[in-house]
Amino acid sequence: MTSYRELLGLDNRELVSLVGGGGKSTLLFGLGNELAALGLRVILTTTTKMGREQAMAAPTICWEADADCAGDALGKRGPVMLVTGGDEHKVTGPPPRVVDRLFAESGADYIIVEADGSRGRPLKAPGLDEPVIPGSTTTVVMLMGVDAVGRPLAEVTHRVERAVALSGLSPHHTLTAADCAHILTHPDGLLGRCPSKARVVVAITKVGRAEEATAVLLQDEFASHPRVDAVAVVGKRE
């Protein structure tokens, strides 16, 4: 099976921000564990909120967003999960400027950031203050679940009102591959919020054998956009 690192075309040292819907946390931990298993120094974090149970499952937790704490933690087993607060349900992480500083000072080979929320929906249209991407990000991965195609917009989209405004579609409209690509790549959508120097990879997730034809349609839609550097099809994994 092709590694996440290969699918996303990552270089030897990266700050990766995950945005959109359709499996950001799964990719965060899957990529982080994969890279750490290669002996690389990996920090995982969020600039928004993520589930506490998921975060606390990491083998090493760092509760201080400074280079010394992160550097010490990077010497331990597995990827380091950096959190700064939260409650019994969610954890929070450092603001983007702190992530930028850690990338410059901590000695991490990779920092992987969950920089957006989608409440489990496969498609995301951003609010005015979303996503929360660190400025030093080298690769932005825009995720969408293949299961958004063929279903009503309101059923599969986080920030329905924003998606309607971007697309002009009814909340009850059944989404096509072209509709989904239009929402994600709209200048006022997620693509328009990516740092200008960052690579942009679209990751089509949750693809099994039954979804392969739909994934090909989505690939074709995204690949033609001049701001999209690569399109990755992420298969279902056990």
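That was protein one. Protein two is written in the same sequence-then-structure order:
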Amino acid sequence: MFGWTLLLIWAAREPVARKDIALLTAVPVLPGLALSVLYGCLNGYIPLSSSLQIWSSQAFLFALLISGYIRDSRHT
């Protein structure tokens, strides 16, 4: 997670030039995290109320990353 955080900080310095990092974060990373929360919820490790909060945050981040990627793709 620390490495991915550094990668996102690096990408934020030139967001249009490194917009593919947003796509890599939105597609494999966020769904993977959502599946791990689902696993935790189904096995009783995470309460459903907490899972819903996490999933809503992830959905917001997903929409933000994808919309930014699409918007920047139109301008380059």
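The chain has a mean pLDDT of 91. Keep this in mind for the problem set.
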